[in-house]
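Title: Prediction job returns without error message
Component: structure pipeline
Severity: low
Priority: P3
Assignee: unassigned

Description:
Job completed but the reporter wants confirmation the result is attached to the right record. Sequence as submitted:
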Amino acid sequence: MNGIYYHYFLFWGDSMLGHWRPHAEYQSYLISSMLPFYLAEKARVEYYSKALSKLYLLDLDVLKPVLEPYYSHTGKPAKNQVEIFRSFVLMSELNIHSLSAWVEKLQCDSLLCAMVGVTPFDVPELGNHYDFINRLWLENPELSKAQRDSLHPFRKKPRKKLGKNQKQPPRHPGIIQKFVDLALEGKTFESRPERLLQQIFAEVSVRPSAEAGLLGDTDNLAVSGDGTCINSGGSPFGVKVCDCKSKGIFNCDCHRRFSDPQARHGWDSYHEQWFYGHCGYFLSVYNRDLKIDLPIYLRMVEAQRYDGVSAIVALAEARKLYPDFTFERFFGDGAHDNYATYQLLNSWKMKPFIPLNASNKGNFKFPPPVDVDEKGTPICMAGFPMVNWGFQNDRCRIKWRCPLVLGKVATCSCKDKCSPSPYGRTIYTKPSWDLRIFTPVPRGSMEWKQEMKTRTSIERVNKRILVDYGLEKAHARGKKRINWWLTIHSINVHLDARLKASKFDFISILENLNQKSA
C-alpha cells in the first residue's frame, strides 16, 4: 500500500466527504444573505466589496473531485469542507494572520459568516481548520510528529557573509547535471508531501485563469523562475532538554528540540544577511496586455538550496502538472547560467533568457569558430560587433550582417578588404556550437532586451505573496503550514487578476436588486 493510501486509511479513514454545496447554490445564497445586510449596513458591506467579489467568482466545484480520494467512503461525514476552504481564502484577503483570532471573529460576526457560507452557530472550529490542513499534507502524521519531537543539533548562524547579489554555491559539485539527467528521463519527486496542494492550486486558480485568457497563449508560455527567502516562525536556537545548565555549562553542544526542525540558515543575497527558514521557488507568467503577474507553480525547498538546482525540479514538475501547456521560453537570473540547464531547455525546445553569470562571463565550452564578444556577438575584422539579422529556423542558425552596410558605424578601415557585395559581409552562428553563448535569441539584441523585461515578473509575484499578503506574518513553523498559506495567498493573487480583467463588482448585483425592489 503506497504512502497516500496508508495516510488516508490509517489516519483519516473514519470520515467521509460530507455535503458539498455547489458553487451556483452558494452564489444564490450569497446574494440572498447579503441583501438584508446591504439595506441595513450599506457602508459595511461596501467595505467588503472586493472580498465579496472574489468569493462570488471563486468556483470550488473543481475542488471536490480532487479531494474525494483522500476521504473515506464510510464513517461520519466531514462537515463544511468547502466552507473551511473559503474561510481560509477570506482570512487571507482580510490580512488576518492568526487562525485562532479569525475563528473568534467569525463566531461573533454574522456578516463574515454569511460570506463564508455558514451561520454563527455552525462556524467550523479551530481544530476543524487545522484538521483540513493536515488532511491535504501528504505525509505520514506519525513520521511528522516523530521529527518534531526528536532532537537535532544546534547550528550556529554562519559568520562569513557573501557579496551583494551573490548566491550560495551548490553544495554538491555536478548536482545540477544529475538532476537534468533525471528530468530528461521524465522523473520527478512523486513523494513530495505538497503535491496535492500544487494540484489544488492548479485546478482552483491556474486553469480558471488560463480559461479566462489571463495567462495568454498557453501553447506558447514564457515562464520566469526564481527563489525567495521565507523566514520561519520557529526559533533557530531551539529548546534545550539537557541538564547542562544546572551543572554550570551554558554553551553546550547537546541536541535540542526545534519547532521547525527542517528550517536552516540561508543567505539572503538581496538584503545581504543570513536568514533562518526555507526557500520558496516559484514559476510565474506575465500578461503584457493586462500587465499582471501570475504564479503557476509553487515549491518549498531548503534554505541553502541553489536556485539553479531548484529550477530543474520546478520545470520538470510544472511540465507534468500542466501537460496541456507548452513552455516556450524560460527566464532566470545568473544562478541559472550553467551548461546543464541550457542542455535541458534545448532538449525541451525552450528558448533560454538567462544573463551570463558575472563570475563566468566569456567562458566557452568549446572555442567558437568565429571571434565573438562575451555576449556571443560575432566581431568583424575591423573590431565592430555585427548586427543580428534573425534566427533561421530551417537551418537552426543565427544570421549576422555587416555593421557598416546597415549604418551602425560611419566608417570602416577594412572596407576594401572585406566582402565587395553591396549586401555586406554575412556570418552565421549556430547554438549547437555552444548552447550557453549562442542562444537562439542573441544576447544583447533588441528582442533579447525586450524579452528580458519579462524576468522581473517573478520578483513582483514574490512581493505580492510575501509583502502584500504577508506570508511571514503568520509566523508559521514547518513546511506544511508555510506551504498552506503560500497556496492560499497565491489563490488570492489570481482572484485579484480576475477582478482586474473582468471589472466585476458584487455590489452592483445588490444595488440592482435594491433598485428593483424600491
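Comment from assignee: result matches the submitted record. The radius of gyration is 27 Å.
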